[in-house]
Amino acid sequence: WQDRKVSLIVTEPHDLIAELKPAHHPRLYGSAGCETWSVRFSPDGSSFAWSMGYGIQELKLCLLSLREHLGAETSCVLLCINSSAEVVCSEEKSLNCRQTVWALAFGPCLSTRVDASHQNGHYHELLLAIGLNNGVIQVWAVSTGNLRFTLTGHQAPVRDLVFTPNGSLTLVSASRDKTLRIWDLAKKGASPHVLRGPNYWVFRCSISPDSSVITSICNHDSKVYLWSLRSYTFMRHLTYDHERTMASCDFSQDGALLAIASYHSTTGWWLDLWDPYTADLLTRVEYDGQLSCSFLISALRIWDMEQDKLVADTDHNRASGVCCAFHPHGGVIATGCRDGHVKFWRVPHLVPSLKHLCRIALRFSISTYQVEALPLPKKILEYLTYRDTLFFT
Question: Which residue ranges contain the repeat WD (predicted)?
Fold first, then answer.
């Protein structure tokens, strides 16, 4: 989920600004086993990682400049899995993972709300966590290409990884062994906290901006799981009254919304916005075949929450995505494609309204229940709790 504004529909040919091609092309377009299932930008936007399912076990580090597209005097480092890009790489390192890569995460995610004097300087080293097919998690130092940690315990492929956004070295992993594990990389050799409960593969996980809640979904379970990251216990379900195949989950920038993408063979794709505090379903987007959130089928779509409308829609034949990620500084979206490619799309900037910035600042620190207890007019309360959000299909 990315709470970012866009000023116009991205349909011109120049909206595609860069592309990475895999080393091996699929024998048949769309055939299983060639998808790029994970794309990640580092927290500061200086690095980018991507994975694909060819069974390739080597990561290569190369340098690619996106400065003209980001409008910044910085470059973007690309971590490619045995891939070749349509650019000249001035630097390259190889990371031999020895297993098929399924999940990626950069960390730590340094928080602007934590006093820098209370953050250990060692934590500022950029790390890349890699979830492998055999259940092992490898943690590499990006600057040196050295393997820092090897985490064992999962009994099946690790499908998702995420660092807490509070600047710590806490890593959450989701696996096909039906568990989530919480690792403290600052404590070498410490056993992880294991969260059990789902009866299906844990497919995706996400952490709230205040690092208090983990949300997770299973691929064939019509429920959303909410876990306390403070007590390591189950909190509640967000439940659908009909069967759904869950695809992705993510919190809004202030933690007041939880976006869930799901699919059903007869009703198509849905994007639901939930209140994670009250378990209320706030709004739903239904459409037949395309979805933009963190999971894509054949298009990239961007929604403007304040204006309640679709503001960007890429050409369906060119997008062909299964995952996406915003650059932290804005301006660029990366999509992982079904044929193993990665594509970078230009996203125009638009300054959000002052009242929306105030809402984000307030909701980061105050729950829905606390807002509803305030002596404010009804319309203001509806705005602060996102009850006035109405998407259309």
Answer: 151-185, 325-347
90-123 pLDDT per residue, tens: 455 667 777 778 899 999 987 655 544 444 444 5
Backbone angles phi, psi at 19, to 5 degrees: -150, 140
- pTM equals 0.83
Domain with 160, as residue range(s), is: 13-356
Q: What is the DSSP string of 348-366?
A: ---PPPHHHHHHHHHHHHS
Residues 55, 68: contact at Cβ < 8 Å? no
Specify if 256 maps to a domain. Answer: yes
Distances, alpha carbon 69 to alpha carbons 11, 61, 91, in Å: 16, 21, 21
- Give the separation between CA 294 and CA 253, rounded to whole angstroms: 14
Omega before 276 cis (within 30°)?
Answer: no
Q: Identify whether 381 is part of a domain.
A: no
User: Residue 283 is part of a domain; what is its CATH number?
Assistant: 2.130.10.10
DSSP state of 299: -
What b/e sequence results for 191-204 when a residue is b if at least 16 CB atoms lie within 10 Å of its CB, and e otherwise? Answer: ebbebeebeebbbb
Range 203-231 average pLDDT: 93
